[in-house]
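Continuing from the previous page of notes. For each protein in this section, the sequence appears first, followed by its structure tokens. Read the first protein now.
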Amino acid sequence: FARADELDARTFSLSLSYSGFRAHRLTAEYSRSDTLIGFDEDRVFISWTWTGEERKYLVTNYNSDGGLLRSKYHQSTNLGNAQLGGSVGLSTAALGHGASIGGEYVGQKLFAVIEHDRFYPESPDLVDSARTRIDLGTAFAFTTNSVALSRPIVDSFTLIKADDNLDPFELGVNASGTFSAAEIGLFDTAILPNQTSYIYEQVKIDTRALPFGVTIEGGENFTVKPTYRSGVHIDLGAGKMIYLRGRLLDSRGVPLALVAGEISSGTSTKKIILPFFTNRSGEFALEGLSDGEFLISVFDYAGVEALVSIPKGVFGVHNIGEIRLQEKIQ
């Protein structure tokens, strides 16, 4: 209930809303305005909304002010890591009828909306009218070390920057199935533009495109808390892991079965890197090495070593083949 003394008017309103059956929502409003000069008005507004699966919805409402009845259907779908949507609408009122059609594209770097509507009057004294609206939006975001293109940013954002070693791989951010909220692309960056200030947000790098042996240094899960209308910067570095396989033989070519040994760096300090154990065929496997030169030795053969070189740029499974102790292996 409200009263405006300067207009000598009183307004009474009542609103009811009901949500049920998971996909339906009904809203009804009634208002009445009384004035001392005799101008009284009753108004009724009714709205029904249906929400379907996969981003479909239908909205129908009636407004007694002008007798306007309007209905609009909207549907959108994923197009890669973007969303493509469309809508159609119909309306009718005391003065005439209308129709509308629209489309929208929401990508990681920009959004675009186009809408066209047309009005067909009932009275021959009025003329048809048409209107077209086009909206385009993008944003240029930057932190101390990086720049990126993004959809328009309302509050805060998170900028993810990948180093050059990750260039060959498609990395998504906050992926759900085949859809990613952002994807590292132009300038080796990705933007999450819908971050809320002072709220903890989860950032997860989708590493499914990385081959075996390539990892994200420091992990792939991050928690950020941007301050008021600010940007958070995350650097991604590539960590390369080598899974080394080989087969040990003695000087006569007999497999060294079920023996224990170690791989150490090929330097004077002889720092121990990893232990290993061969199977009955003399084969061994271990992970955690990088490129460089390493010495392979077996505990039961004191003083017998083989030098192994792992070239730069190698990652994943690297098979060095058969190794005869006391031989230099390249």
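Done with the first. The second protein uses the same format. Note its length before scrolling.
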Amino acid sequence: NENNVIIRGSTFIGRSLFRKDVDYFITSTGLEECIRDILKKMDIIVTTNDKVPFENKVIKIANEMNIPSLMIQHGALGEVESFKPSITTKVAVWGESTKEWMVSLGEKEDKLVITGSSRYDEYITKKPEKKEKILKKFNIPSSKKIILYTPHQFNIHLTVESTQLTLEENKDNLYKLFNVAKELNLFLIVKLHPSNEISIDEIYKLIPNIEYKDYVIVKHGQEDLFNLIGTCDIFTTFTSTTALEAMLLKKPIVTMNFYNKIDAMYYSKYGCAIQSTDEKTLKEAIKDILNKKEVRDKLEIESNKFIENYCYKIDGLSSKRVAELITSMKI
């Protein structure tokens, strides 16, 4: 942009850091000579990933040229198998728990700066759509309790098997959840992940045929997740940062870990979610939340603690803290 900052890897973070109408961009080939020519004009490099080939190459060249670089956390970190210490000058992390986790795996503590998460800045003033509007849009009966499920990506190829679900496991998750929703007379909303390796038609084929019609599959872009969370009574997922948004909206959470996978977010460990390990415990968790106020109250208390530890402050100023860090690092 006009401040000689390269932002690559996340348009969302770039726009939230500076202004909503930032459209400055530079294109580059992967040739080292081309990258070096561009970097000669830059004061700092900002990225959200220093592991994928292009970003990794840019950061390594910037290091050789003594140009500072900053990596900004843009999602959950918890996959031990794929973790490698950063090669950037500094790393802006969401909160204390991420910092502790990275240091335990060999990251240099003095590189880490806690800023909070820019993606949640707008939550200070953002309000979900009125529930009635969402019910009408998706033909949901107002008499029904609603459970919202954000599934893992429907992928054929897994990069880290210990923290990801196979297609068969995703299918089995749907089968168990649909059974429970039918038995408890709930309306089920399934909000698909933005990126899946199979088509929407193929995903529909995974829906169990159990004579249950009180559900809707919401594709990416069809409705803001924030509005769906605001509408639901219970939120469920395998493990996803979407649960953080549910916590911000004071929604009780049930995690579904039916295959003894590693929960990268450790929600149940901190008591901010109830973990189910099979269909029976899923049903029990949902019933407890619906019928016991003390269970809902305890989840809300622990959720508030988790957010503070994981996201530092939800005060609308995380982008400002990151921008100030960038300015302080410029050569």
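What the second structure shows: Residues 6-16 have pLDDT under 50 and may be disordered. The CA atoms of residues 11 and 329 lie 21 Å apart. We return to this in next week's lecture.
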